[in-house]
Design goal:
This protein is α+β, with helices and mostly antiparallel strands and about 400 residues long. Helix content is about 30%, strand content about 40%. A hairpin with a 3-residue loop joins β20 and β21. α3 runs antiparallel to α4. It is rod-shaped and about 175 Å long.
Length: about 400
Amino acid sequence: MEEMEKVLAYKPGRWRWWLAGVMVLLLFAGSLFIYFKPSDTQSSYRFVTRPVVSDELNITVSASGYLKPQESVVVGTEVSGTIETVAVDYNDAVKQGALLARLDKTKYQSSVDQMRAALDAAKATLENAESALFRADAKVKRNRQLRETTKGKLPAPNEWDNDWAAYLAAKAQVHNAQAMLEQAKYNLQTAQYNLERTDILSPVDGIVLKRNVDPGQTVVASFQTPVLFALAKDLRNMELQLSVDEADIARVHAGQPVAFQVDAYPDTTFTGLIKMVRVDSQIEDGVVTYIAELDVNNSDLRLRPGMSADADITVKTFSHVLIVPRAALLYVPAKPQQTKMFAFGSKEERPFDAQTHVWRLRGDRQEKIYVKVLGSNGTRSAISSDELREGDAVIVAQEKRQ
């Protein structure tokens, strides 16, 4: 009886040690099971692949800008006055020399009449001065003859001096009248010039883009010529001015092809060639851009001045190269290959590989292939590789099976 009581008294302590040992064994066995169980990468995930293709890849620079006529002319007036007539409207086709508008001619015609009368008066003044010079010259000639016949005794010195002075004065009057006549001619030319400018004529064959005046409106030509009309010389050939970011301008130059779209025709791609890249920059809100100009064929007249355009400038072309989706270069396996080494229930992973590579899928096995990137257009990349071949499947994504 005493021995049984001793066993019962000792049993609770031994039970606790036994329970702790069992728990340790269970934890150890669980860790081994978790660590050494087969990887479920192949069974739980599926790979999304794309084939390697041999194709042409264009590297582009994006830019935006506005369309404008290749040649446009603004028409103003050199004289002030009231608009009497406007002969054209928006979109009208005009010929060189055609009447666009006319100012009231009243004061300018009056000025011409005044200048013409002043010219007539100047002519009369000249004729009168020439008559006085003729009389003074005749008198001087008679004095010379008299001096020769009288051997210098006649005329008297005082009379000679007066007649000679009268001759010089008459001669000066003629010169003055001639100058006044020339001035009157120039004043008449100016008045006629101003009168002619009351008819505002088209300087070119073109189309009226803007009309800024109406009959009865007063225009004042002072320090700056007022703009009355804007004409496009030929809308069948347009110019696109693109703003290229300073980070891309080193790759853009004359002769490069451009493809662009406008909002009015979202399904149509227009093309052109860069003809010039301006050296001077534009700075707006701290952003530095440079203007690239290109000519655009607009024979169907669909494009209009002022339309905004989004363009891609082809700065480099790779022909007959291997091309992969850019996603293939960014792909990282969801469960990288691991070396199974017991280290307190964890797995030691392979270090990150910074060298450019893609993953090729062969059967159910992934193969890392190192490549050299030649260029990228954002969605596709041109590469070179000694191992990849056209048609090889490269992994672009890894999805968990449902």
